[in-house]
Amino acid sequence: MKRWFGPKMIGFGFSPYSWEGWVVTAVFAAGIFGAAQLIPAPAIKFGLMGALLAVFAVIAALTYRDTD
To answer: Is pTM, for the whole model, over 0.90?
Structure first.
């Protein structure tokens, strides 16, 4: 599988490595922002945000490589 996310240059974690990683990151950010702005019920809002975070973390973990 192609590498979408890689290690950060400084610090701990991962960052987008290819255009696919940037698309996943942008969709995640738009989903979080959209949920925060458009959904009035806190329980549904935070549930959706948690689900988006879980999906983002799974995609990042599956497409992460530490070395070339």
So the answer is: no
Give the residues across from 15 on adjacent strands: 6
What Å distances lie between residue 45 and 24, 31, 41, 57, 67, CA to CA?
20, 11, 6, 18, 37
Instruction: Give counts: helices (H), strands (E), the chain.
Output: 2, 2
Q: Tell me the residue ranges of DSSP E strands in the chain.
A: 5-7, 14-16
Q: What are phi and psi of 40, to 5 degrees?
A: -80, -30
Which pair of structure tokens corresponds to residue 32?
């979080």
Cα angle vertex 64, ends 12, 60, to 5°?
85
Q: Given a cut of 90, is residue 30 above it in pLDDT?
A: yes
